[in-house]
Amino acid sequence: MEPSDAKLILGYFSGDEKALEILFGRYFKQVYRFAHSYSKNSEDAEDITQKTFLKAWRNLKKFDQSKNFKTWIFSIAKNSAIDFLRKKREILFSELKNTDGENMIAETLADTALLPTELSEKTEKFRNLALAVSRLPQKYGDVITLRYEEYLSFSEISRFLGEKLNTIKSRHRRALMMLKSAFLHQK
């Protein structure tokens, strides 16, 4: 049986560095996926994830151990993502020209054509679902992402987003209805 988050935190405070490594390792992939859902970019998601765990480490002594650690770390991740994206400056495509006026990366851009026909139907459905979720208003997309990608309960999502439990459940139902409607209109 794996030690609880609370036991790992106590272990770390008692001098066991490995306990912190286990604790952070437990949530690393989930925080990264969450950061990626905000940034839509692997490099930015890595930066956000790194900032999240650095802030968690620096503030671990302030963590109220009567609370849920997973909710706390995701709150830090959300704030880190918002801060990061707020500070990130968009680079205009025109700024990428060399001294001859040619765009330095135009020929190296990835092909955005449709997926090859060899991909399975399951992969195509997943892509369509991810696209539909990304098109939801942020407050609905957050609930879907936290529920189905991060496996948070409605109570955890409620605490994480600072919203009432019934509000979260209502947003979840509305988000599912919006997704269903989006798929019905595709056919």
Outline the structure in words.
There is one protein chain. The chain contains 8 helices and no strands. With about 190 residues, the chain is mainly alpha-helical. It has 2 domains: about 1-90, Rna Polymerase Sigma Factor, Chain: A (Orthogonal Bundle), CATH 1.10.1740.10; about 110-185, Winged helix-like DNA-binding domain superfamily/Winged helix DNA-binding domain (Arc Repressor Mutant, subunit A, Orthogonal Bundle). The protein is globular.
Task: For this entry, give a set of tags.
single chain; 187 residues; Rna Polymerase Sigma Factor, Chain: A; 67% helix
What's the structural blueprint in terms of helices and strands?
Elements lengths: L4 H9 L3 H23 L2 H18 L9 H19 L33 H15 L2 H11 L5 H8 L3 H22 L1
Helix pairs in contact: 1-2, 2-3, 2-4, 3-4, 4-7, 6-8, 7-8
Question: How many strands in all?
Answer: 0
Domain unit count: 2
Gyration radius (Cα, Å) is 20 Å
Beta-strand fraction estimate: under 5%
Number of helices: 8
In CATH, the architecture of the largest domain is Orthogonal Bundle
Order of helices and strands: HHHHHHHH
Main β-sheet description: none
Q: Distance N terminus to C terminus?
A: 47 Å
User: So, the CATH homologous superfamily of the largest domain?
Assistant: RNA polymerase sigma factor, region 2, helix turn helix motif
**CATH topology-level fold name of the largest domain:** Rna Polymerase Sigma Factor, Chain: A
Mean pLDDT: 81
Structural class: mainly alpha
- Give unreliable regions as ranges: 111-116
CATH class of the largest domain: Mainly Alpha
Helicity, as a percent range? 55-70%
What general outline do the C-alpha atoms trace? globular
Organism: Candidatus Giovannonibacteria bacterium RIFCSPLOWO2_12_FULL_43_26
GO biological process, one term: DNA-templated transcription initiation
InterPro entries: RNA_pol_sigma-70-like, RNA_pol_sigma-70_dom, RNA_pol_sigma70_ECF_CS, RNA_pol_sigma70_r2, RNA_pol_sigma70_r4_t2, RNA_pol_sigma_r2, RNA_pol_sigma_r3/r4-like, WH-like_DNA-bd_sf
Keywords: DNA-binding, Sigma factor, Transcription, Transcription regulation
